[in-house]
Amino acid sequence: MKFKIGVIGATGYAGAELVRLLLTHPNAELTAISSVTYHGAPYSDVYPAMATLCDKILCDDKTVVAESDVVFASLPHGLSEDIADACIKKGALFIDLGADFRLTDEKDFIEWYGNPYKHQALHQTAVYSIPEFDREKVKDARLIANPGCYPTSAALALVPALKYGLIDPSTIIVDAKSGVTGAGRSLTLASHFPECNEAFSSYKTAEHRHTPEIEQTLSAYAGDKVYITFVPHLLPINRGILTTTYSSLKDNVPLEEIAALYGDFYQNEPFVRVMPQGQSANVKYVRCSNYCNLSLHKDSRTNRLIIISAIDNMVKGAAGQAIQNMNIALKIDESAGLNHIPPSI
Questions:
Q1: What average pLDDT does this structure show over 4-21?
Q2: d(Cα 23, Cα 321) in Å, to the nearest integer?
Q3: Burial of 340 per CB tally in 10 Å (0-12, 13-18, 19+)
């Protein structure tokens, strides 16, 4: 069975990844794609790699909603609520890659994003989903909040340790590095080639908007409110996130035991790979794929657990995870359209 799929914001980086992945999805028919900047242009004029593969004319958002069973929106925060409302009223599945539905507490959203909720009722039905943790909630969802890239990489690293009570939640440090695509397609000084090439620096230190989202997920598994130190960095590469988390172990648990617990936790997850001891996660080996590679390390001198998480920020951190959520909600093969093998070189 094929579903009619629409993408709003199809010319941004995450939107482009949605288009790329959906074109080879066995259950997807890409029916409509929209863009404000390039409205009326063939998609292949914006992305020449799509020549003969996707020459659709970029339309407006209302057309996407009218023609689709499933609508993905890849937009800046504050722009998704009206579209979500229109989709729900039509009976379409809506999946938001933006931030509008990620935080459950409106006070947090106002503090970090500056906007109050516009459609209060929608937030009561929205399901935030990292599929490895929220699969059951997604099965009956009609409005899905797709997680941010940094929160995905951090949560996949830390949730098992919190669930098994291995670490002291008050000691968590999340040190993350992202490729430049994480800044979006609109040019800024920081993402300008001469500024980011041969450079490496932190940004929005201790004030990044993904902080409350990471804390929200970790708190759910810690059983109490978790506050973290989060420092993101900009890597001079196109894509990928390498997240290193540091936390103090509650007991002197051997690394072999921790590795066994992680192996059990993720043994049935198709996109999470716990690496053999002695190896270290590397963004190169998840590139263009929906995989998350995790490597586990222990500093015996300080009794600290170090977990390294590698994802592609555009796939598992955005479009791939959104499609994974769609597959679950539509009750089709969760891996459909996502079995891309990372290039080795």
A1: 97
A2: 16
A3: middle
Side-chain half-sphere CA neighbours of 130 within 13 A: 27
Q: Write down the residue that tokens 């794929």 correspond to.
A: 289
DSSP 54-87: --PBPB-HHHHHHH-SEEEE---TTSSHHHHHHH
Instruction: Encode pLDDT of 204-263 as tens digits.
Output: 999 999 999 999 999 999 999 999 999 999 999 999 999 999 999 999 999 999 999 999
Please state which of the four CATH numbers 3.30.1050.10, 3.20.20.20, 3.40.50.720, 3.30.360.10 is assigned to the domain occupying 150-314.
3.30.360.10
Q: Give the CB-side neighbour count of residue 165, counting CA atoms within 13 A.
A: 2
Angle, helices 320-329 vs 131-138, to 10°: value is 30
Distance between start and end Cα atoms, the chain: 36
Residues in the chain: 345
In this predicted structure, what is the pLDDT of residue 187? 66
Enter the CATH code of domain 3-125. Answer: 3.40.50.720
Short-list 155, 173, 170, CA closest to 250: 170
CB 152 within 8 A of CB 130: yes
Active site residues: 149
What's the mean per-residue pLDDT of the chain?
96
**Strands 201-202 and 292-299, bridge-based pairing:** unpaired
Distance CA 183, CA 190 (A): 9
Mean pLDDT of 49-78: 97
Mean pLDDT computed over 56-60: 97
Return the amino acid letter for 137: K
Q: Where in the chain is the domain with CATH 3.30.360.10?
A: 150-314
Reported as type and span, the H/E element at residue 156 is helix 149-163
Looking only at the bridges linking them, the beta strands covering 28-34 and 70-73 are unpaired
pLDDT at res. 296: 98
